[in-house]
UniProtKB/TrEMBL annotation:
Subcellular location: Cell membrane
Transmembrane annotation, as ranges: 32-51, 63-79, 91-111, 118-139, 159-176, 183-202, 222-250, 271-289, 295-316, 328-347
Name the UniProt record assigns to this protein: Sodium:proton antiporter
InterPro entries for the chain: Cation/H_exchanger_TM, Na+/solute_symporter_sf
Keyword annotations of the record: Antiport, Cell membrane, Ion transport, Membrane, Transmembrane, Transmembrane helix, Transport
Taxonomic source organism: Nonomuraea turkmeniaca
Biological-process GO terms, alphabetical: proton transmembrane transport
Superkingdom of the source species: Bacteria
Keyword Transmembrane among UniProt keywords: yes
Length: 409
């Protein structure tokens, strides 16, 4: 524990010192923590020694995913979803299940996994993460509708993929461990807690008897999140759906609470993300990377360059997006933090194929982080010339297309 804390503290300081450089170059702090975990883990230096069954691994994965889903939900209140649903709706309603299905087919036929385990891998790898495409999402020269599409999609698809992960994991575990009826009750109870607790807390603050002072305002949403977490633990409701529902409820009914918590919440979530990436990297060893074989690596590459692009191309037929925009959306479906935590959950679940599922997900995430975090700036800069062209030039070019060339009648 002491060595892990020391490693995390040192890496966090290094990430802070390099954060300005990371915003301007292909350097990724997420990739930095993943690589650091790999180098410091048992597969290399052995400074950080962790086993998949360690309580710390499961607890950190649980808290990290809770924090991520809570803040993700806050980014996409019902107002945002209604005003910008057309394009993200295609990516979520069609793109996500198509990505899941294509990935599952690859896992089944390339690697030879059973259909349930293949569908579980598809559900784990379906969500996207804007952290590994930050230069694209944060570049104001990238078309606003494209940035909004990627932001909304990545904010919602973690929560949408979660029920699929839980159901396929429960089936893979066998009926003796968890009945689907019990799973449905657990998921439903999580949603109820996630809606009821923040709604009641916000309504209480809106009465004349209660009011949060300015210094305490950022703690309001934090207290709501902790209460949702505690009630979920006490009642065995699904913590992750509760977190996602709670975030959406705060965003919908408590705009002030969301604004005051936004920066504070993102910092807390970032700490959990980086810690989980360090642990995830420490669990990846050279032996693990080699044990998947060439079929495993082929699956990982195809999951990135075929599954998502094919699903997005089919989903956005007739959408009005340009070819360049569709290509950017198709490529930047990086497998990020939610996939990391889902993989850790599967690894500690005890199902027969847990190790193989984790290995395949691990190599896919490693490939995704290296490929996407090193190409986001390059792709984002591809939009610079297009956005820098003056408006009058575009009008003149269109007018010229309708007139005869010089010297022609």
């Amino acid at each position: 524990m002491g060595s892990l804390l020391l490693a995390f503290a040192g890496m966090l300081l290094l990430a802070v010192l390099l954060s300005s450089l990371a915003h301007r170059t292909i350097l990724s702090t997420a990739a930095l923590f993943l690589i650091a975990g790999f180098v410091l883990g048992d597969g290399a230096l052995g400074v950080v020694s962790l086993a998949p069954g360690d309580e710390l691994v499961g607890t950190l994965a649980e808290l990290a995913l809770f924090a991520v889903l809570f803040t993700d939900g806050m980014r996409v209140g019902w107002a945002e979803l209604r005003s910008a649903w057309r394009l993200p709706g295609r990516a979520l309603g069609w793109g996500l299940p198509l990505t899941l299905a294509i990935t599952a087919v690859g896992a089944h036929y390339l690697v030879g996994l059973g259909w349930i385990e293949s569908l579980l891998i598809g559900a784990i790898l379906a969500p996207t993460d804007p952290v590994f495409a930050a230069a694209l999402v944060g570049n104001e020269k990238v078309p606003p509708r494209l940035r909004r599409l990627l932001n909304v999609e990545s904010g919602v698809n973690d929560g949408l993929a979660l029920p699929f992960v839980m159901v396929f994991l429960a089936i893979a575990a066998g009926s003796q461990d968890l009945h689907l009826g019990e799973l449905g009750l657990e998921l439903g109870l999580g949603v109820v807690i996630g809606v009821a607790v923040p709604w009641a807390a916000i309504k209480l603050e809106q009465t004349r008897w209660f009011s949060a002072s300015t210094p305490y305002e950022p703690l309001n949403a934090l207290a709501i999140g902790l209460l949702v977490l505690a009630l979920g633990k006490a009642t065995h409701g699904n913590l992750f759906l509760a977190a996602f529902a709670a975030g959406i409820t705060v965003a919908t009914f408590g705009e002030r609470q969301r604004e005051s918590f936004e920066h504070f919440g993102e910092l807390i979530t970032e700490l959990f993300k980086l810690a989980a990436l360090l642990v995830f990297g420490a669990l990846i060893t050279p032996a693990l990377l080699g044990s998947v074989g060439w079929t495993g690596w082929l699956f990982a590459i195809l999951a990135l360059v075929l599954a998502r692009p094919a699903a997005i191309w089919l989903s956005f037929l007739g959408s009005g997006l340009s070819v360049r925009e569709q290509a950017a959306v198709a490529w930047f479906g990086p497998k990020g933090f939610a996939s990391v935590v889902y993989a850790l959950i599967v690894l500690s679940s005890g199902i027969a194929a847990a190790q193989q599922v984790f290995q395949l997900v691990a190599v896919t995430i490693v490939a995704s982080i290296l490929l996407h975090s090193s190409t986001d700036i390059v792709v984002a800069r591809g939009f610079d010339d297009e956005r820098d062209v003056p408006a009058w030039f575009g009008k003149a070019r269109r007018l010229r297309g309708r007139l005869p060339e010089d010297g022609q009648s």
